[in-house]
Amino acid sequence: MEEKNWVEREALLLKDRDQHQAASELSLWLSFLCTRVK
């Protein structure tokens, strides 16, 4: 669960930057986490 909090914090940092880039990086992160959970 602590990992999820870290990801959420990263997502907030990304939102402060260019929105398009943030969405791209966030979707990569979600894909990475999903593959790790499996």
From TrEMBL:
Name of this chain's protein: Uncharacterized protein
Phylogenetic classification of the source organism: Eukaryota, Viridiplantae, Streptophyta, Embryophyta, Tracheophyta
Origin superkingdom: Eukaryota
